[in-house]
Prior knowledge:
By secondary structure, the protein is mainly alpha-helical. It contains 15 helices and 5 strands. The protein has 2 domains: 17-264, Fido-like domain (Fic-like fold, Orthogonal Bundle), CATH 1.10.3290.10; 283-351, Winged helix-like DNA-binding domain superfamily/Winged helix DNA-binding domain (Arc Repressor Mutant, subunit A), CATH 1.10.10. α4 (83-105) runs parallel beside α8, α11 (244-282) packs across α12 (289-297) and α11 runs antiparallel to α15 (344-351). The longest helix is centred in the last third of the chain and has 39 residues, at 244-282. The structure holds adenosine-5'-triphosphate (ATP) and magnesium ion (MG).
Amino acid sequence: MKHELKMLPPEDNFRTVRILEQLARTNRALAELKGYARTIPNQHILINAITINEAKDSSEIENIVTTHDEIYKAMTQSNYKNESAKEVVDYRSAIWRGYNLVKEKEIITTNILVEIQSIIEHNNAGIRKIPGTVLKNSKTGEVVYTPPETEKEVREYLKNLEEYINTDDMIDPLIKLAIIHYQFESIHPFYDGNGRTGRILNILYLVLKDLLDSPILYLSRYINDNKQTYYKLFKEVRETNNFEEWIIYILIGIEETAEETMKLIKDIQSEMEIYGEELKEKLPKIYSKELLEGLFFEVYTKINYIENICGVTRKTAMSYLNQLEEAGFLSSEKIGRDRIYKNDRLINLLKNK
Length: 353
Ligand SMILES: Nc1ncnc2c1ncn2[C@@H]1O[C@H](COP(=O)(O)OP(=O)(O)OP(=O)(O)O)[C@@H](O)[C@H]1O
Ligand SMILES: [Mg+2]
């Protein structure tokens, strides 16, 4: 049976007790995360670490399962052979690009989404031009939904979505986020990468609406863990036009993820503190706050990073890295022409999340 996708906004105002109660809890968790994240001095450390995990989780929905080890190799080597790991790295670049664009333009446009998708997919195919895209049940292969078919239709829906995203109304932004995600996935504007682009759109919307300062909350893990419900609710909305369960599902996801992200931030911070104290004690001559932060900026470091961060010569940077490795703060590996120094403690911390 064919279900026509409705244009936005929905007629409902979603003021049910269940939605409002959950909304309050979710807003509280999110506000706490935002406030806490603000107290962290080097925001880049946080965002980098969190987006590595998000890129990995999000790509797992697509079944590009890859390991942290493979990922940092792909990060350090542009001609690295592992395609999956490269996809994860591209996904992280797409998040950064989207974040910077939203910060600069203060709106989310179709063009931004097209650009994000092109980074994820590494091609300029853009919006679907050829009909024939259908969404199937992954187990039975049965066609469950046919998204808008012609390019003209897809563009009309996207224009409508763009307006909905950027126009303020009486609906709470978190409820709108749930609706936007449903609508974007149902428009399914691209040949591929709709899931990943849509999940990036979620975080960009949180930043646009000032619910977070930086891109640190991602639903991919939650969606992965609750995938069946995710697809079941898509179907329910499509068939009954009832958004309540879907909205609650997304709101719970944001609440749970905000709590988990808080925990991760605290773990990174305390790991950095312990590491810093140890560094001061064991290598007082080379310790500096800049060096410590530099070692947590990415999961790995290289000689020229240390040169820049610490403002020292190549020779000195090399000696720093040797000392750090000998004292057990880093472990090194030769990758291509470079020697890469890994912060294993940070890697392990992220691995276990
Ligand atoms: N029946 C459906 N109705 C609406 N959206 C759907 C439906 N089935 C799947 N989707 C959406 O389509 C996405 C998959 O589309 P696509 O393969 O283009 O994206 P992807 O990023 O490559 O994949 P993935 O989301 O699996 O990582 C899903 O993540 C989901 O959000
Ligand atoms: Mg796909």
